[in-house]
Write a structure and sequence with these properties.
Elements: E1 2-5, H1 13-21, H2 28-49, E2 61-66, E3 71-76, H3 83-91, H4 97-104, E4 129-137, E5 147-152, E6 157-163, E7 169-176, H5 186-196, E8 204-218, E9 224-234, H6 251-261, E10 271-277, E11 283-289, E12 303-307, E13 310-313, E14 328-332, H7 349-372, H8 374-394, H9 396-402, E15 407-409, E16 415-417, H10 418-425, E17 436-441, H11 448-456, E18 461-463, H12 469-479, E19 483-487, H13 493-496, H14 509-520, E20 528-533, E21 542-545, H15 548-558, H16 563-566, E22 572-577, H17 581-588, H18 592-609, H19 615-629
Parallel strand pairs: 2-8, 12-14, 17-18, 17-19, 20-22
Antiparallel strand pairs: 1-6, 2-3, 3-7, 4-5, 4-7, 5-6, 8-9, 10-11, 11-14, 12-13, 15-16, 21-22
Length: 630
């Protein structure tokens, strides 16, 4: 028997591993199975090179749980270890065998997917165990290649013995501690295996599952008979879609894989992008465009990051541009630099290159869809516009690409590129300052009367109704030459599209000054500013508008803009139509009580049209309206 001390710098290495090295104890299983996959991958490479003359046989990895014995085992049929290798790769912490192996077999195609880089992965098992045993036997033939048993109780002390092990490979047994008993529950282990090992390239078996198979016989109704059988439960898909060539795949394959990734998401993705890069970095993956709700309530943890098919994290900020974290799918790259626990990104120029490449591929796909099938692109526009607008706001290079295929949609349901829309409206919607005025609505129902007033004059109104549009409009005003964007209810339509042919007023300045305090008494003076305009007799006698600047700033604050604007009270203008007959009648009324009642009725009608009349004020308005009808 050999006894010794593990070669570490300090005897406190185990408490350090337990508390600081890994942020989440559950990843011990990922690390052990990753090591088993490494050993199996190495065995396959050695078998192909002719350095191994025996039968490769079944190379599945098995996970065995024994709740009574309080043990969890990970068994592989990989290359195994000699006594010297156990001493080198287990006792000397952080000396990873993967580096040495890659150097020796770097010309082989299958050498690159090896996972281990840190050599500390095995020691994560001590986070949940009070004793760990290794039984291992090397694939090498010859004297001195018997099995090896290594035991350690979580202190720097260990023992190594010879062990009569028949088959090559490694069996690791964890004796689970009392404070980690959750890992003795079958469902918990199954959950971890499905989370971290779902797409590993080596078959993982955990327990058994019941299934039904045809017997080859028919029942009395002529239906095939089936029987219940118990089979080994295979955890993983060893050849996930992103590892396959796009040319060999069909649309249905991508949809099926989406269902495999997100079994609880019942909505089909809009389309997908298959990533496949081998220079200057290695990157594979499949990204899906999902349907995004207008209210922007989306989860940003839907893209899964893998390193050689080992799940790492679903927090991909930094690798994927922020606007694309709304997408779903998988990214796999061994070139993404992670810290020792594989939990956090480390600073590296490759990350920026990968991020830029993903952005380019997304832009390529969108432009291709727009050029090749514009009707289909327009049909998807309402679902993808939030991605595109977010990208154009946050990424200058993406803006330059996307301005070719970004669309405006108007209230008639027609779609235009930026250039097409400019040509469409420039004749009628250029004001006296030679600025092109882009009219828009954020809610076609609530702003219907204003939209109607604009379209009756031949003006066009854009639908800008998603949560990012206030920010997007700001950007477009900076990018476009000589233009301004105004919501249809920011002013009266004649004031929005300033022309030189203003109507004369039917009431004098003196009459305006006489009328103003009467109307101001009907509204909150802090919230409403009373103004007079000379409008057509067919327009409403009074209307509510909301000035563009402050209203837009408030909207931007709601999605992360300046909190100062978000705290400001809402401001409105109560516009009096100088030319409406009811305003003339209001002036002529000599009975102050009747005059006040008519003024209140007219202001309440204006408030009601903008959904601003509520509570007791609405109740009083209804009663007053009934009285007036009587």
């Amino acid at each position: 028997m050999q006894k010794g001390k593990i070669n570490v710098q300090t005897e406190n290495i185990f408490p350090i591993i337990k508390k600081f090295l890994y942020s989440d104890h559950e990843i011990f299983l990922r690390e052990l199975i990753s090591n088993a996959v490494d050993a199996t991958s190495k065995m396959r490479v050695i078998s192909q090179t002719g350095d191994f003359s025996g039968e490769l046989g079944n190379t599945s990895i098995e996970v065995i749980l024994d709740k009574k014995k309080r043990t969890l085992k990970v068994i592989d049929k990989g290359i195994g270890m000699t006594t010297e290798e156990v001493d080198k790769f287990i006792n000397q912490i952080a000396f990873s065998s993967a580096e040495e192996f890659i150097e020796k077999y770097k010309s082989q195609n299958e050498a690159s997917p090896l996972i281990g880089h840190f050599g500390l992965g095995f020691y994560s098992s001590f986070m949940v165990s009070d004793k760990v045993e290794i039984l291992t036997k090397t694939y090498k033939k010859g004297p001195g290649t018997k099995g090896v048993k290594w035991v350690c109780d979580g202190s720097p002390d260990y023992t190594i013995d010879e062990y009569d092990k028949k088959d090559r490979g490694t069996e690791i047994t964890l004796h689970i501690t009392k404070d980690s008993e959750e890992f003795l529950e079958e469902n918990r282990v199954l959950e971890l295996l499905k989370k971290y090992c779902k797409f590993l390239p080596v078959e993982i078996i955990f327990g058994t599952e019941k299934t039904y198979e045809p017997t080859g016989e028919k029942d009395k109704d002529g239906h095939d008979k089936t029987k219940e059988v118990e089979k080994p439960r295979i955890i993983n898909n060893t050849k996930p879609l992103w590892t396959q060539k796009p040319v060999d795949l069909k649309d249905e394959d991508y949809k099926n894989f989406y269902r495999e990734l997100y079994p609880m998401n019942f909505e089909e993705p809009l389309f997908n992008i298959h990533l496949n890069v081998d220079y200057p970095f290695t990157l594979t993956g499949i990204l899906y465009f999902p349907k995004v709700k207008r209210n922007f309530e989306v989860q940003r943890d839907k893209i899964q990051l893998y390193c050689n098919q080992v799940f790492v994290t679903d927090s991909v900020e930094g690798i994927v541009p922020d606007f694309l974290t709304l997408m779903h799918g998988v990214i796999d790259s061994p070139d993404i630099p992670l810290n020792v626990s594989r939990s956090y990104l480390q600073s590296d120029p490759n990350v920026k290159k990968i991020s830029s490449h993903i952005t380019k591929k997304v832009a390529d796909k969108l432009e291709e869809l727009f050029k090749n099938s514009r009707p289909d692109f327009e049909a998807k526009w309402d679902d993808i516009r939030i991605f595109i607008e977010y990208g154009m706001i946050s990424d200058e290079k993406f803006y330059e690409r996307a301005e070719k295929f970004c669309l405006f949609k108007n209230t008639a349901g027609k779609y235009f590129t930026f250039e097409e829309y400019k040509e469409h409206v420039k004749v009628l919607q250029t004001d006296k300052e030679k600025q092109l005025v882009y009219l828009y609505t954020t809610n076609t129902e609530e702003q219907h009367s204003f939209i109607n007033a604009a379209t009756e004059r031949g003006y066009d109104v854009l639908v800008m109704d998603n949560v990012l549009d206030s920010h997007f409009i700001n950007q477009l005003e900076r990018k476009f030459e000589k233009c301004r964007f105004s919501r249809v209810d920011a002013e009266t339509i004649d004031k929005l599209i300033q022309k030189d042919d203003a109507l004369p007023s039917k009431i004098t300045e003196e009459q305006k000054n006489q009328l103003k305090p009467i109307i101001e008494n009907q509204v909150n003076k802090e919230k409403f500013q009373v103004t007079f305009e000379s409008l057509s007799e067919s327009e409403q006698p009074m209307m509510i508008t909301q000035p563009e600047f402050m209203r837009r700033m408030r909207d931007m604050s709601a999605v992360g803009g300046n909190s100062y604007f978000g705290s400001l009270p809402e401001q409105y203008s109560l516009v009096i139509n100088c030319n409406h007959p009811l305003i003339g009648r209001l002036l002529e009324e000599k009975d102050e009580a009747k005059q006040s009642k008519l003024a209140k009725q007219l202001t309440d009608l204006a408030l009601l049209s903008q959904n601003l009349l509520k509570g007791e004020e609405l109740t009083n308005f209804i009663k007053r309206s009934v009285d007036l009808i009587d």
